[in-house]
Automatic annotation (TrEMBL):
<keyword id="KW-0732">Signal</keyword>
<dbReference type="GO" id="GO:0044718">
    <property type="term" value="P:siderophore transmembrane transport"/>
</dbReference>
<keyword id="KW-0998">Cell outer membrane</keyword>
<keyword id="KW-0675">Receptor</keyword>
<protein>
    <submittedName>
        <fullName>Outer membrane receptor proteins, mostly Fe transport</fullName>
    </submittedName>
</protein>
<dbReference type="Pfam" id="PF14905">
    <property type="entry name" value="OMP_b-brl_3"/>
</dbReference>
<keyword id="KW-0813">Transport</keyword>
<dbReference type="InterPro" id="IPR039426">
    <property type="entry name" value="TonB-dep_rcpt-like"/>
</dbReference>
<dbReference type="Pfam" id="PF07715">
    <property type="entry name" value="Plug"/>
</dbReference>
<feature type="domain" description="Outer membrane protein beta-barrel">
    <location>
        <begin position="390"/>
        <end position="789"/>
    </location>
</feature>
<dbReference type="Pfam" id="PF13620">
    <property type="entry name" value="CarboxypepD_reg"/>
</dbReference>
<dbReference type="InterPro" id="IPR041700">
    <property type="entry name" value="OMP_b-brl_3"/>
</dbReference>
<dbReference type="InterPro" id="IPR037066">
    <property type="entry name" value="Plug_dom_sf"/>
</dbReference>
<dbReference type="GO" id="GO:0009279">
    <property type="term" value="C:cell outer membrane"/>
</dbReference>
<feature type="signal peptide">
    <location>
        <begin position="1"/>
        <end position="18"/>
    </location>
</feature>
<feature type="domain" description="TonB-dependent receptor plug">
    <location>
        <begin position="126"/>
        <end position="214"/>
    </location>
</feature>
<keyword id="KW-1134">Transmembrane beta strand</keyword>
Amino acid sequence: MRYLFLLLFAALSTTLYAQTLTGEVREAVQQTPLPFASVSLFASGKTEPVQAVLADSTGRFSFASLRNGRYRLLIRSLGYQSFEKNDLEIRGATHLGTLLLSPGEALLRELTVTGQKPAFLNQPDRQVFRAAEFQSARGGTAADVLKNMPSVAMNSQGEISVRGMSGFLLLIDGKPVQGDPAFLLGQLPANSIENVEIITTPSARFDADGKGGIIQITTKPGTLDTRAVQFNLLGGLPSTNDFGNKDKPVRFGGDASFQYKHGKWDLSAGGAYNRYDLAGRREGDVWTKIGNRFTRFPSVGERSTRKENYSLRGTAGYRISARQTLKAGISYGVRDEYRRADLTYANTTTDLTTGQLIGKADYYNANLVRKKGTFLLADLDYSLTFVNRSVLSLSALYEQDRFSGFTQNLNIRTPESRDTLQYTLNTNVRPLTGYRLKAAYEIPVWKGMLESGYQFRSWQEDGTYVYLEKEGNYSPFGTIPGFGGNVRVANTIHAVYSQYVLKPAQGWSVTAGLRYEDANRTLTTDSSGNRLHLQNLFPSALVAWQWSDNWQLKAGYSRRVQRASSPELNPLPEREHSETLEQGDAHLLPEFVQLAEAGVVRNLKKGSLFGNFYYQHVRNVVNRVNSVYADTILNRIYTNAGQARRLGLELGLTLNPTARWKLYAGGNIYHYRIQGNLFGGAVANSSWVYSLNVNSGVGLGDGWNLQLNVNYLSRRATAQGEDSRFLTPTVSLKKDLMKGRASLLFVWQNVDLGIWHANEQRITTRGKDFFTTTNYIYEKDVLQLQFSFNLNKKVGKFTEAEFGDREF
């Protein structure tokens, strides 16, 4: 009988202490997860917590081994008001769902004064910007949103830089993308974006790739028990100046999305199509010296682009239990781009010894480049929360892409002539296959959260390149030894990491971590091959202190790497156009970067102000440089040019002068210096560079809103020359319809009116035996209309390419 009593008592005790409590912490404005929030549970009427934990990196938390009864829940996070839930009754397994933390006093004032969500939130490890604030980007792509961020700049070629560095890691809803961000951002619809987050000193849990840090794009979330539908239609008005190009520019597109979220299911699907042509003109001047021969060949003519993208995406999420979630995604996309450069050349050759003209020829170069890529990828994610509040996360991604393209380079006497002087044809086909596996484990330790993980990445690209050339009308195509063949590039990376997030006292947050990577890169051609094996440590640290509602300080450090893409490694030459031969370097080394910063945030009565001092040091800096190949051809190659350093300051201001007027301004100024060796000679160049991004919106009443955007990038130094300034102003006017469910938007891009030389940029390089300068003049005063219908303004999250976009 005594043993039976003990058995019953043990069973009763187990039942009493077997209760659990779970939930998820999000911020109330953007409704994005708040990682590592402090969560404390108190017995009713007590001042000491029964248990205290940190939420994990996705904002989830759990308590185990609780007794039945009433409790008080308290949640704190830097920059947000405390959340308190009293009279919380726990009976069995209790799931609280999503708990929202309101912004701190300064942001709350902004919400009260304007009745709108703030444009900017400053968290300890990142800056968060609402995409909806930049209405001129609606109907466009993610690149149109991103170029408005502070310290982000876009040049005339569509290249995006952060704090002056063009390489950065792009995350889409936490998924890293192995590719050139500019190509991917040109495919993702701006209407699907909720926030843009800039992480300039990333922690060890993130991939080490990206010398400029990390840009994360979060797509619009769904809400429980909803069916969401959204679609947008975009049309371009006739061009105001097509420069007499061969074809009239065409601009139209649309996107649609659907989401169903109910109970344990979260389903979403979406598709987009976009056609965006841009007329343009190119003015260039080049000279070369070979021996005593001086050749000059200025040119002028068309430089237009045609871009076409379409994509389909779908995701399915299932909450297995309060502790387990499963999510799968699949997407397919096609990107097709043409670049036409039809130029008239005036070629003269002079004897430097005598000064006499020894040759003269005028000719017309018809040049057409096509790039096409198809992308298919699938991913699977699983998360399990244990009773000890630790979290196991598993993820897998598979990607299969196919890239292809050609360059047609035809030299003839005149545009009307049929007399071929020279015809060069380059083609390429490059299938790519990639895999990514990751396992991570988080566990509460003392007053913080310890996370460790392993990641495996592998991607391989097999390229077939054809180079054909002929002289005259009737001669057959011939090949040139070393100018065509097969190139295989294979990459494998094993990584392990560990980081600790500590919140030792109210207002303090400390993160320290270390990442180890073992990377192998193998490149094989028809005649040779090489292997690069690197082992590296990537430390990181971040300290943040909020000593009042209005002041916050932070300091951080991170070591990063920028790996070379397959085009940068391809040693086979390609005729880019009449005056340029382009090739990569099979022995190109990765760039290694050290990033450090210290910053302050000041919350104002009607807005906020932030400033960050930063330092960047790049080893093995990669530049695309020129040398003389022939009298009328420059050889453009990728090479490691030495070391580079940036020392700068970025500033950002959000202000609401009145209830209807909202102003955002971001600026970045830095000193850039590069030192090294090129072609046996010393390289030393430096300059001050600055960029400005200004957004000002005014509510006109009755659903009307007027907005002005100005993006300006100053002149900047390169390894062999400089790039001129670049200006792109935009004006937009929006009218809300159907009680906010629909809207009509008019956008005036590249505002110029013949005054400001908008949307044009001059790029100049020079060496001891050559000089080249090219002015790219793209279409100005572009007019567009967009109609949007949004049933309840919620769309889903999608997966983007891990490997392919950069190779495209």
